[in-house]
Design a protein that fits this description.
This protein has 15 helices and 14 strands. By secondary structure, it is of the alpha/beta class. The chain has two domains: 188 residues, Rossmann fold; 155 residues, Glycogen Phosphorylase B (Rossmann fold). The strands form two sheets. Strands 3-4-2-1-5-6-7-8 form an eight-stranded mixed beta sheet, with helices on both faces. It has a six-stranded parallel beta sheet with strand order 11-10-9-12-13-14, sandwiched between helices. It starts with 29 loop residues before the first strand and ends in a 5-residue tail after the last helix.
């Protein structure tokens, strides 16, 4: 029989904000969000962050608008209430072949869009776009913010040509850079001597909710990109083999890529007993998968935060993560998941088995959901609004 998720004498807390309320017409802010690409071209954590933040701002009566780029003609759309300007992205193949930082070619057009608009604040989620925001700030005197989606460590900063120079210019030109976790902020201080603010990303508690029942047999879900070596999906498959020795009915659900060549190059088996590939790029499909799963896993290295773990918790599902980077700040207490501290199949298998046992606990759904509510989209939007106003936006 499927496992009932929510105890009969308990209810999931309603979704609400932090008491900020809707902005009056006089207080309403026009916010330019800048991202080099967006759905459906890419569905990474950065794009999800932009969408969730925009939703939180819209719910509070503000006017966020997204300036992005794509390999096509310019277009203007309104998607779920968010106005989106997609600018043409000039070719960047030659720069990429020479290992330059990506997403540099569209920056002049993004700057032009900022100058043509009437914004109270420019908020970039990628250092290249922060260059446009910084130049706009010099001309208008209005605040510019960079939310850094990764970890600015030595390896990452040297991975691409001009990455370090672009980030340093963005830090000099913007009013403030925001890190996703305390760990990421400590790396700003360690490698760049810069004191970053910390605002964790938020989870949409309306989109990610507990299901009425879990799958009848153990299901482990991992939504990480299997073709990216840093995500260690191959290690997860190896650990899953060990899990099936004790739980032969267990299944592992991975995110189906556009093509499997990158998956094979990353050393991830495409066919394996109990392994299934599913379309987890769609947010509704991902929420359903988390709701039906017994455990969600993220074995990757160098995660600035690990939003996918928080989304699983919002569905009442316990999680497993590698005890490095920002992940321990998400799995920060007993009852919501299990950390493993060695990139070893045995260590990961033990954590998965422990989490499967945790999934049978009658309190696990409410415990996980309560943790997610501490880091909701509403709370994230409120903290960014406080930062905008601190910097003088709308004054």
């Amino acid at each position: 029989m499927p496992i009932s998720l929510i105890p009969t004498n308990a209810t999931v807390a309603p979704v609400s904000g932090d008491g900020g309320g809707r902005a009056s017409t006089k207080e309403r802010l026009d916010i330019a969000l800048l991202s080099p690409c967006f759905w459906p071209e890419e569905r990474r954590g950065s794009e999800r962050f932009v969408r969730e933040l925009a939703d939180g701002l819209l719910d509070r009566g503000h006017r966020p608008r997204l300036i992005t780029s794509h390999p096509g003609r310019p277009s203007r759309t309104v998607e779920d209430g968010l106005p989106i300007l997609r600018l043409p992205r000039p070719p960047q193949g030659r720069l990429l072949r020479r290992q330059y930082e990506p997403y540099l070619t569209h920056v002049p057009l993004s700057y032009g869009a900022l100058r043509a608009g009437s914004f109270d604040v420019a908020h970039a989620v990628y250092p290249a776009d922060a260059l446009a925001a910084a130049r706009w700030k010099r001309h208008t005197g209005r605040p510019a913010v960079l939310s850094y989606m990764g970890i600015p460590d030595r390896t990452g900063l040297r991975y691409r040509r001009k990455r370090l120079e672009v980030l340093l210019a963005a830090l000099r030109g913007c009013d403030v850079a925001v890190a996703l976790s305390r760990y990421a902020a400590s790396e700003f201080e360690r490698w760049l001597g810069y004191e970053a603010r910390v605002i964790p990303p938020g989870v949409d508690l309306r989109a990610f909710r507990p299901a009425s029942r879990r799958a009848p047999t153990p299901v482990i879900v991992c939504s990480a990109a299997a073709g990216e070596p840093r995500k260690n999906v191959g290690l997860l498959v190896s650990a899953f083999r060990l899990v099936r020795r004790e739980r032969p009915d267990a299944r592992l659900v991975l995110s189906r890529p556009v093509e499997f060549d990158s998956v094979r190059r990353a050393g991830v088996p495409v066919e394996e007993p109990g392994l299934q590939w599913a379309d987890l790029d769609d947010r509704d499909a991902l929420a359903r998968a988390y709701g039906e799963a017994w455990v969600a896993a993220l074995p990757s290295r160098s995660e600035a935060f690990g939003l996918v773990l928080l989304e699983a918790m919002a569905c009442g599902t316990p999680v497993v993560g590698y005890a490095e980077g920002g992940i321990p700040e998400v799995i920060d207490r007993p009852g919501v998941g299990v950390l493993f501290d060695e990139l070893d199949a045995d260590a990961l298998a033990r954590a998965l088995l422990e989490a499967l046992e945790l999934a049978a606990s009658p309190e696990v759904v409410l415990t996980c959901r309560a943790r997610a509510e501490e880091l909701s989209t509403e709370r994230c939007a409120e903290r960014y609004l406080e930062l905008y106003r601190e910097l003088g936006a709308g004054a």
